[in-house]
Each structure stands twice: as C-alpha cells, then as structure tokens.
Queue: 3 jobs
Job 1
Amino acid sequence: MAKGSVRSASVFALLILLLQACSMPGTATPTPMLGEPPLGPLTLYVSTSGNDSNDCLSEATPCLTVVYALRISTPGSIILIGPGEFTANGPLTARHDVTLQGAGIDQTTLTRASGDVMQFTSPGSRVTVRGMTIVGAGPDVPRNGIEVREGVMLILENCRVRNNYYGIRLFADAAAQVSNIQVEENYYGVSNRGDLFLSSSTFTRNLIGLANYGSAQVDDVTFDDNGHFSADSRSGTATIDNGGDGDLILRGSRLINSRSYGIINHGRSVLLDGMEIHDNLGIAVWHQQGQLEVRSSVIRDNGVYGIAIGGRSGVPSVGTVSVHETAVVRNHSAGVRIDGGHVSLENVTVSGNVATTSGGGGIWMYGGTLILLNSTVAFNTGHGLEAGPGEEPAVVTIRRSVVSLNSTEECLLDPRVRISYGTPGYYVCVENSEAALGLGPLAAEAGTLVHPLLPGSPLIDAGGPAALCTTIDQRGFGRPSGLTCDVGAYEFGTTTAALVLATPDATTVPDIVPLPT
C-alpha cells in the first residue's frame, strides 16, 4: 500500500474514534468556542465611572455607555443604569427583548444632543424602560424621546419624558403600556397611531398633550397647563386631539388649565367617563365628527363653550353625541353649543353659563337635532334655550325637563325651529320663580353638581308615567323614589346609588362660587 493511502486511512480511523467518544454516555458537552455568546439573558451594569472594555457583568466592572450594553445584551437581558447623565451619540435601540432600569426619575438621565434618544424598531420585541428621565434636544427639533415602530411592545414606567418634539411616538401596529410617567415641555407629549394604554400620569406644558390616531385608553391622568394660543393668528392647539381613525377612552382623568382647546374630536369615537374638565381657556370639549359620549363628568368654568358640537367647515357629517349624568356649569358663551349632528342630553344639569352679547346661555343651537330628557337648564345668564335655523331648521324634543329661571327670555326660537315639549310643559320655556319651582342652589353631591329639589317642589312626582322614567338620576341614584319620577336631573328622596358609576370623587369638586345674576 502507498504511504499516502496509509496516512489517509489513519486519519479516517482517528475521526471515527473521536465521533464514538463524543457519543458515549456520560461524556460532557463541549465548551463553546471563544467568541460565542452566552446562551441565557444577562444582567449588565452601566455607570458614569465604567469602561466599555469591561465585561459589564458586575457593579465592579460596568460599561460606560448604554449603547454598548445594548450591543452586547442577549434576549431577555436587564441593563441596570446607575445615577448620572448618559449622552448617546446615536439612538438607543434594541434588537430583542430587553429591560432598561434606571436609578429613578432625575437620578438617571438619558439624553442626546440631536436625533432620537430611543428608537425601537425590531418587530416582535418587548422593551421595558423604568426609572429614568429622557431628555431631547428641544420641542422645535423634529426628533423623538422614544420612537416605537411596527410590531414592538413598549412598557414604560416611572419615567419623565421632557423637551422633545415627540415625547413618545407610536407608529401603526406598535403597542405601549405606560404608567406613572411625567410628560413635560414637548411639542407632542404622546403621538399614538398604534395601541396605547396610559394610566396614573401627568402631562404639563406640552403644546399638544395627546394626539391620538389609533386606539388609546387613558385612566387617571392629569392634563394641566398644556396647549397653545396665538394672539396674532387667533389659532390654538388642543391639549387632546383625537383624529383620523382614532378611538379614545378617557376615564377618571382631569383636563384643566389648557391655554386653548381642551379636547377636539375629529376622529372615530371618544368616550369621556368620570372626567373633570375645567378652567380651560377655550372650548372645553369640541366634537367635530364621529361619535362622542360624555358620562358622569363635570365640565365647568371654561372660557368658551362647555361642549361644542359641529361648527367646523368641510365636515360632511357631524355624527352623534350623547351626554348623560353630567354637569355643564359656569362656562362662557354657552353650556352646550350645537351646530349640527344628533345630540342627546339625559340627566344633565346646565347651569350658571354666561351668554355673550351675541347670544347663548344654557343651550345655543343653529341646526342639528336635540333630545333633552330629565335635565335641568336653569340659572344661566342668557337664554335657557336659543335655537336658530342654521342650514336646516333645528329640531328639539324635550321630556321631563326644566328650562326655566334663566336671566332673559327662557327660549328664543326661530319660527322655523321645530320643538316638542310633551305634556305637561309647565316647566319648559315658561317663566317661573325660584320659590315656585322649589329648585335649590347649585350643590356638590355624589361627585357632581346638581340643583336639589326642595321639599314641596312641584317637580316631585311630576314626570308622567313611571314606565317612561330613566332608572337613575344625575347622581346615579335610583328613579323613581315615589309614585313616578321627578322632573329634571335630580330625584328627590333618594340617598343610595342604584348603579355604581365612574363619577369623580366629591372631595375633588371645589367649593361652589356664587353664580352670576
């Protein structure tokens, strides 16, 4: 046999022996070669005293930059970022599931001189960010504090997001669960085109607090001192803007001190549940199209209308508005302004609203349809109901309600307006005295503002057949308490709630100031 053939046979035999040894029971798994990544998630440390040549696996050997820690992280890793300011040369991004944990708000600060601070773009990844402040290059620089792209899930907790163009920007098909954050001094606090759940947070001094064009649920959030108004152009921004295909739910939240509009709806749907909306400079709630439901809320002391419906040119259909178990009190121009659409007010108190020299007061409408049920429209400076023809004559249906005790003519109606009072109509568009109606001063009860009925009031048990009564009054208390329901938003003699509603806590309603005369 040739020498080359012998050598080949020997090598082949050696390979067989090695393979047999590897397959023998009890043989140890070979150690990964140098340079291969570990198989499991890591806990990595970042410190202002660290070095990116360290292994970053302990507090004694931390990384210097978050960028490097993200680069060496594995799926499911936790990156613990110590106190101090960390400035990135590029956006912080993650290729897989990762948690970024800071030392606390204003203890750990992530910033960038230009560009996005954080940018998460890997579909299917889940990124958690906690305990830090995220600062951008300024609200005039078109960059993001946190950008979340399609297919990414963001968990954001216990953070401050400040001084960005977009504080948080969610693209279509992105998702975010956000809680206990402070959103400050951004152009857009949050811009959402994905799926957003936001809770227990505050928005302050943003030009637009929340712009929603996707699906958003907002619970227990305070929007305070947001928006912008230009005296030169006479235009402004809304604290909350719901547009496009936006579906927005706001529960148990506060919308206050806006520098212009409170909320504008030109999207698909908005639900306001248990809201406090007050002391906004412009219109508190402006519904332009789509669907709006307001329930168990207090809308008071705003600079223009409490609720405005329609009035925007170029809108083919205003849509529908339902307001119930709600107080619309002490707003300027009118409590409710209607310029189109189909509007229902049930168990609503419209009181103390102040007309302008051109009209207004309680309810002011030019077109549209209004159904007013079991409501109290009283003590407004101006008319209780003013209705003009608009493009088409307004249509008004009133049942079991009070429209009286307003400062001028109770109902100022264009002859073309169609109105139905029902029977009896003793308390609608009729001048009465306060003593004759037995309607008490405005008071805070069960988290809302009502005019209680006084003993002996003719409104008690005057609501007609009991089968037509609503089951609750404005406070959520059961109807009827007597033979039949009472007229107006208040049911006399009931002290327990028949249905638990998401109304604001009574302690959050301030002392009632004297009403204008």
Job 2
Amino acid sequence: MEAYSMKKLFLTAAVILSAALLVTGCGKKAASKGTEMIIENGAEPQSIDPTQIQGNVEQRINAALFEGLVTTDPKTCEAVPGVAESWERSADDTVLTFHLRKTTWSDGTPVTAQTFVDSWLYFMAPSTAAVYAYMPAMVIKGAADYNAGKADASTVGLRAVDDYTLEVTLVGPVPYAVDMMTHYSFDVLPMHTIKKFGKDWIKPENFVGNGPFILESWVPQEKVTVVPNEKYWNKQNVFLSRITFLPIDDMTTAYNKYKNGEIDWNTTNTFPLDMLDEVKLRDDYQVYPNLASYYLAFNLNNKTLKDVRVRKALIESLDTKELVEKVTKGGQIATGAFVPEMAGYTPADGMKFDVAEAKKLLADAGYPDGKGFPKLTYIYNTSDSHKKIAEWAQQQWKTNLGIDMDLQNMEWATFLAKRQANDFEIAREGWIGDYQDPSNFLELLKSDSGNNDGRYNNPDYDALLEKASKMPAGAERMQVLRDAETMAVDRDASIIPMYIYVTQNLIDLNKWEGWYSNTLDLHPYTGLKAKK
C-alpha cells in the first residue's frame, strides 16, 4: 500500500469530489453511546471509491466504510472472518470456497456471492482503470487476460455457487491469497448504487457501505466523518459514536494539535525531525518494526536515466546509514534491498555505498566528475522529513559525484498525479506491505503494475513473479522471489532503496483499548473503544 506520506491520483476523481461533497448524508446520525475518535489522517483523501484509491490516507477511511470476505486481525495482521464466516481450499490448493454470512448494505440490500463476483469483475475491468486491479488479476485464474482486455468476464475464475457460497479459482496454490484479500482491491462494492448514480455514488447523500461505519459528511480540506452502520453484522462490537478524519499534512501542526488534546490518534508515521527527541520520550509514543520500504523511483523513460551506469552511480553515492543515523533518527534501518526481511525470506544484497565505484560508473557513462551531467529534478510530497531527506540526497550527489539536483515539493494529489503519469525524473516513493509476503513489494515493479511509476519493464522479471505465484509455500518459492529482487534491484538498479520503516504513532493506550502496534500499521475500528 502506498503510504502517505507514501500511494496515486486519478484526476477524474478530483473533479467528482468538488463542492458537491460539502453536503451531509441524509438521515445519518451518530449513535447516542460511545466516544468520538479524532484522527489526524495526513492529507485530503483522493476518493472513497475503492477503485480509485491507493494510500494510507484512503485505507484508514476505507476500513471504516467497507468489509470484504476477510478482515485484518489487529495483532497479527492475518486474515480473519469478515463477510465470509468460513472458507476452505481444494485438495490441490487452487480453489477457495467461501461461505458468506447473510449481511446487507447500509440501505438493507443483501450482499451475496454474486455481489462479490460483480464487484471484482467491475474492479478489474479495463474501463474502470483501478490502480490496484493488478492485485486480484495476478492471483485469480483468467483475470489477467480479462484485465488486459484480451478475454471476457466468463473466463475469470469466479463463481457464485449459490447466494452465500463463492468459489474463487486461483492461478496456482498462491499461499498468501486469503491474507491478500484483506486489501481493498478485494472490497465488495454496492453495484446497485453505482448503477443508479454512476460516479456520484460516493456523495454522502448517495453512499452505502457494508463496513462498521457509514459516511456522514465530507467537507473537502476540512474533515471526513463516519458514524456507526446499524446494518453491520458485527455492530455489537462497534463502540465509537463517530470517527473524524482530519486532513493535516503539516507534521508540526498535527503534533501540536495532538499535544493540545485536539486529536486522539496522530497517524503521521514521521514526526517533525527537530521534535523527534521530545516525541520519543512520550509514554504515548508507539514505535514498532514496520513491513515498509522508503525508496526513490527512477523514470526509466528519461534519456539520462535509461543508462544503468548512471542509475548505479546515483545509488552507490548515497550513504543511507548516515541518513538514518543523522537525518531521520527514528530507528529506521538502512538498506540496499527493496523487500524487508520477513519469515522465510532473505532480501537481496543490494548495492553498497562506494563513492569510488560510483564516480567510475558516472565517468564510464560520459560524465567524468559530473561534467556535462544534466540537472535533474527530484520530487517529493509536502513533509518536513521528505524535504530533509531530499536535501540530504541532493548534498550527497553534489559532494560525491559533482552533480546538481533540483528539488521540488508538491501537494499530495499533484504529486501522485505526476508519478502516475510518469511525468518526473526522480520521485520519492514508499510502500507499506498489504500482506506479509515478498510478492506484495515485488509486484510493484511488474511491467503491468498500476504502481510501477518508473515503468520498469523486464519480461524475465515478470516471468519470475508469475512462476512464484503458481508455486506452493516454501524455500523454493522464496528463492525465486529473491532472484527477482536481485534482478530488479542489484542488476538493473530500477529503484534507489533507502531504508526500512518503523511505525510511529501517537495514541494514548491508557485511554483507548483495541488498538495494537503491528508490522503493517493496520488498525481495524471494530473492537476499538475508550477505556472506562
């Protein structure tokens, strides 16, 4: 999941969300019991349409409004029953059969197995242009060709056996498939509302959801509010009376509001660097290892950056150990790999800090001591920490290679749009895992991935990922994935790995229960409540 400050914007969504979203949903009132939670949410959300979102900013809202077949355990991040109360695999592990509860949308319309089939086909349809369509398309049999416009819906491995039994045929054993389905690319969608209102279905007065909350209001650049969904099957475990999401992208403002008691949960994940020592001393500072990677993307269509020697020179001239020790200082782990360590997986070695080798590579590419090297631009979204990281890299490249780099700060939506359009030279990127498997990171670099901003395109790499998707769990599959990472990161230098994140949140766990630090920084709202 693209994190904020890390995930892309479709400009059509921005148009949809104009002044029409100022209204409040009809007849949607907060419950009389419970406590409101106010969340600092990082930025103005792109959308609440699951087909048009991609970031942590949007994920936190999505988790309130929608529930898929499975949801996330707040401690382990593993899949637990959601709309599906149980499931089983076939003997060869390639067919998943889900048994659904009898649930409804917030307007009382039933959610059936056919609703899931229709939703997923809509999500993956080429005309929908969903950023994350590649995720279900990678694991459901026949879905990749359907998503590419090469086959019709009848070829996709989805079948409603009856109203409450869903059969999903996979491309192979895909050991992580069920955990993957916690992601919003597998959301069930209110197709009856989408058909009725078109793109206006996300307006508060039209919106229906099936999650623990429903949309109450959206005031652009001010707040999004949600209130309990009385039709939610597990409503007895919804204790909050309202959640208010505040789009604050200035970390200092967010921190000060938290200290003043105006915010209950500061999600920023990076704090003002000049205040970090103070933050670390707080009892309500929650820090935890994170399955997340901070990196820079190269535009591989840029004539200068097409040269792998140039890319390797830019990578090997950065001392990322210095970055985490002297700049970010939050416990991040410097790395030359893209994928974090996880159970059974050893990341690629990555390239090392080596100024002499970097200078040689740049000279071999025709730029001795940086002479004649064109001035490139490094873009990043508004954030004190992103700015300091960019300035650090700019200085390293000047000192170690003799080259100049321009820096450009952008607000979130514009930044995402530039990346999505491949309209940049070097761009800040970040990725928080959506499920605990190396493939979730490596899929970003597939040639057909909606998150492949730099447009890395290597058929051999794609073939390794496809091979791994059809293999059973085990060391042999992990080695294939490591071979793919080594190809993309070590050999082809397709990105600049910087560091592995830690999660950093401010929330007083003496006041709130049901919130747990975890490796994916995912925090479901069911079960979350104020302590008495």
Job 3
Amino acid sequence: MSNTISSFNGGLFSSYLRGRPELEKYHNALQDCSNYHLLPYGALQNRAGTYFIADEQATDMRLIPFQYNIDQSYVLVLFNNKMKVIYNDFIIGSGGVSGGFSNGFSNGFDVDLSEYSIATPWTNEQLFEIQFVQIADTMYMVHPDVPPQKLVRSADNDWTLTAIDYSTGPFLPYNITGTTITPSATTGTGITLTASASLFVVGDIGRTIELKQIRTDSTTTATSTAYSPWIKVKGNWDFSTRGTWTGTVRIYRRINGGTQAEFRSFNASADNNFFADGEELEDGVEMRIFGRTSCTATLTVDDFFVYGVAEVTAFTSDTIVTADILVDCDATTATVDWAYNAFSTATGYPTAIALYNERMCIGGTLQQPNTVFLSKIDQWNNYQSSNNALDALSFKLNTSETIRWMEEQGDLIIGTSGNEYKLGPQTSDDVLGGDNVKASREGAEGSSNIQSVTVGDILVFITRDSKRAKTIGYNFEADKLKARDLNSLSGNELMESGVRQVVYKQNPYSEIYFVLNDGSVAIMTFDQDQNIFGWSTFEAAKDAAGIAGLYKSATVLKGVDDDTVYFAVERILNGIDSIFIEKMADRDFKSQTDWFFVDNGLTGTFDPAQSTVSGLGHLDGETVTVIADGGLHPDRVVVGGSITLDGNYSKVHVGLGYRSMARPMSLDSSDGSNSTMGQRKKQNRLKIKLKDSVSIKAGQYLDKLETLRVNKTSDIFGEVIKPESGTVDLIIRGTHEEEYAPYFIQDIPQAQEILGYVAPVSTGG
C-alpha cells in the first residue's frame, strides 16, 4: 500500500492519540516538530535565525513592547529592579542611541557606560505577573505586590516610571460599624481626625481615608445687587428667580478656586422670571449668583453628599491621627460613612488592568479579589467618589475568586481563577455608569495570572494550571461567550512545564507564541476563520558544550508588512551565564545572500570583500556556523572576537547553528474495520515535495539519515547551491517496525520548505 501526506496542518499531536489513526487529522499530524513554522497551507518552513542585540548577566528577564506607532517602536527590557530600552535594535544610551552589532557587547550592557536605564520596583520573581495597558506615550503597569506604576516616554532617552497617585480613590467599602470619624477642619494641612473608638494604627501613615458627609448647604441665594456665597456643584442643579425686577442676574463659575467666569445670564424689565437647570460633570466646580434688588435668585444642587479625602501623616493614638485634607470635607461633624484607600501593602494592589469604554479598569487586590474599579471617563487616574452616575464606579463580581485578567472585547471580559465574566451596561442604549452596569458569568474554565492576548475578535488566555491555552469569543448559537480548548489534540504534554508568557504575531502568518518554563517556545498557527489550529515548537541553538539556550521571554513589534519577534535567551557562552536579547530575522529574504539561519548571530557586509570577521566577542570560544555570500562555509571557532575565512567574501552571517526536525505520526491506517496498527511496516523510498529548498535529510533513524541536495552534489561547501522547487526521490535505509515514521531534518543554514510526501509502505517482516 502507500501512505500519502498531503500536508502537515494537523500540527503536533499528543502521544495519547498515536493509536487513533481513524481521526481525520491523524495523517496530517506530527509527533515531533521543532524549529519549523507550520504554515497555514499545511507546509513546514524552517525558522529563520536570530540576530544578537545585547546581553546581560541576569538570572531572568522579560521583554515588553512599547509601540507608539508602526514606525516608532521600542522593546522594554526588564530585569531585577531595572529597565533598559531597545530602539531600532540598539540599546538606547543617555546621549541618544548607542551600541549596535559591531560593538559585540561581549561583557554585557555595562560595557557601554552611556547606556540608559531606570530603576523599577519589580524583582525577577515578579516580572511575569506584570500586566499593562499602553495609551500613546504612557503605559500603565500593575502587579499585585507593587504599587501601580505609570511609564512615560518623553524622548528616546527620557523615560520616567512613577507610582500612580490613587490617594483620592478608589476606596474600600464603607464602614459598617458604629465608629465615627470627625475632622477638626474641612480644609488645610495638619488637621486632626478623631475616631469614636479604637481604630488607627501606625501603619495608617500614608493611607488616605474618604469621609462621606451629608451636605450642610445645597442652596445659594442672592436677594440684592451683590454676590451670593459660593456653593460646590456636582451633578444636577436648578436655578430660579422670583419677584418683580429689572436688570441682569448672572451665574458665575470657577474650578478649584480659580478665576471666576460668567456662566449664564438672565435679563428682565419688570416683566418675567426665569427657570434653568443643568448638569455639572467636572470636579472642583463652584458657582455663585450676582443678583439684583427686588429679585430672589436661587441655585440649588441636587447632590446630597460631599466626599472629602484626608491623608494620614502622623499617628498619635488609636483614636487620633494627624492628616492633610486632599479633597475638602463639608463640615467638622462626625460621620459613620468612611472608608480606607483600596490599595496598600496591607490590602494589596491590582492584579489586572484593561481599558474599556474610555475608562481605566483595575482589579483583583488581596482584600477585594473580586472587585473591578472603573475610572472616570477619559481620566485614567480618577477614581474619586461622587454623586454622578457617569463618574468612577466599582463593581463586585458574584464570586469569591480572584480576578486574573481583564480585556475589552465589546464588553469587558474578566477572567478569574475559576470563571469568566462579561461586564457591561445593563441597558445597552444607555451609557455604562453606576446605575447601568451588570456582569454575567459566561464560562467556568478558570485562569492563571498571565495577561490575556487579543487575536482578532477573540481572546486567548491560560488556564489556572498554566498548562492549557483557551480562546473565548462570542458564540451566536449560544448567544454568549464560549471558550475553546486549543490543546484538545496536543494535550497537556506540550505545555507540561507551564506557560510563563503569551505573545501574538499577526503578520505574515497568524502565530501565537507561548514561552514555556522549560525554556522552549510552543507556537500555534492560528486562523479561526479557516479553522486552522496547529502546533509546533522552537528550541534555541546549542552552545559548544551541547547545551541548548533557554527562552526566557518573547515580545512582538508590529510592522507594516511583517511583525518582528524578539527573544530573551539564557546561554552559557565563553563560560559566562548571560541572557541574550535576540531578534528573529525576517524569513522573507530578498536574495540568497540574505539567508540568515544562525542564532545569536551577526551579519558583516564588506566592500571590498575580506576574509576576517570581527565584533564577535559575545561568541568567544564558540564553534560557529558561517554563511558566506549565500553559501555554506566550514565552521570556525571564535578567538578574540573574530574569525578568519578561507577566502574573501562580501556578506557573511555568523552565529550558532541549530537543527529543524519534524516527524509525522506512525504510518498506520484504519477504515473503521481494518487497521495496520500493530503490523510491522517499512519504507525504502520517500518522494518529498519541496519548495525553494536546497536540501533535506530524512530517514527512519536519526543516526542513519540520508541526504539529498537539489543539484545532486555531495559537497555542501564551496559553490553556492541555488534553491529549487519540486518533488525529490530519496532512497532510505529502514527496517520493519510496528511504530514507523520518518524524520525530516534540516541541520545546515539553508532555506527549506516541505509541502508533503508520498511513501510506499510494505507490511510484514
């Protein structure tokens, strides 16, 4: 019989499915696949190499994208309480962009004293729990153990990272005991807060307290040609006049005690009176009336409460503290309605963050794990309480589980440790606000604390065991959000070590990169519209001792045509354990001389051609793979940061070699009643369809591989071998085995694309 593989679009299959040849995707699936892209067409394409950018002697590292626009993108490099920035693939220096491939950075970042860095509050252990939202030149970053931070880019070499000021909110739920707090003054510094029972502790210093008081004055009136007293206005207000009068009555307005400005005016000639109303949305607004004789003009505010805020500055006793007033109180009367700030070392900080409905949403603290705080519209840091339904609000999910991530997808989608929720307006025709908000449970998968990723119109998140990937998106049949398991055919084996980071690459092919704790990267080729879901893996090149590098982090910067992937890879080179920042080459090479299939490598361009390549200090002592003018050159050992070639070349790529390997499922068949499973099988010949390839190795055993080059030469060095497309015929040495599957290998730095294969299979033996 013969077995035909038309494509590999099944991707990696779980070992538990190796006895299921009746499955539709079985014969297009793989049991091993490393360093190949699984193209959406079903072909295998060996991955491009990675360029060396910089290295750092650190034990962990996280890369985060900071993309102002397509043309202005940065990679944030975070490691143990420090951040550095990459722009145009160079480390940014204090005097501008400095460094580059030619420098080598053989001793790490510190070799260039001009490099720019800033201090951060995150340790290595906290890096992968950071979640972030970027808006233009500002990024908001949260971690449950660290005060939320705001990163601002003022220039390429001018970045500031500061703790976000949440002193005026959000706050914890209001006090439910009989204990009251009385302020000694309504404004100013150094005032006294007095509690009616034991309340304060030394740890309260630096915390803020909100005092909710019933308004003592909601009306201001003018009865003569003079000003009425100022009155605070927030929310709805009404104005009216009565009497018989002549002249103009005016309403004046000011913000935060600033210069007053005429707001409204009303003219009468002993003939009529006026009524007007409005709504004030801004904070800190005051109004007053300039009246006329014989006229009673009244301005009334509908809100019933004033929300004052005081910051504790000194501790006297458990009933008395000193404080500064941040937001004026209404009176020096006692109130039972008070609340501490929601964020502190004791109560914890937000785990998740998202931008939704023009509000910044944060949530998932230690003390309020199921509460979402939504800022005032268009004011990302403003969570101050008010009487206005459109201002900041908080919402408590109907669960005791911790919020793990949030993301806007029409509504605000929230993943907790046990469920998935959708938060949005209760009445869709009205604006989301305190009196128009609801949340519904949409799923029960449960999430880890890894930030979700948006892929088209769905979200991808990691389950609470960190070993499975799920999508969640709207399902029209169920009329609700529905989750889908991306590991249904690959199983948990692929991610057994756990996921530490997820990033999405949109172009040229839709791929999701999952950085795993074992140092590998699992890649899913993903096209929901075409129902394409297939897995492959990346493994970093090995060093001279045969030890593979470990992927620690990845990030993606969007481009006009292609997106660019960056990796942080731990390697022991020249006896030094460092983390290298590497950029994956664009696989769409312009010509064969641009082929770049080495890791942690550099490119040298020479005019005139030369035989010495220097600037390789980061590879000292390593045996490196060399591509010279598009052809394969014998390996060299880097000594003193340079190598000498066997001739003069114009374009040379130098780096660590790596191997791409794929192995289909065992060549079993089943028509439902008959099966070859358990029978001994053998292949002596493979017909392999290649595209734009130079060579391929294949065989039943890794130590008995057969090599075929498209021009039939046996010498891999010397003359440049041009790529070809078509079907190649390879005779292999094999024996009869019950579990039979060939290996496909590419271990030389040349392009290879495998479209499929046909193989006559004999049974028996």
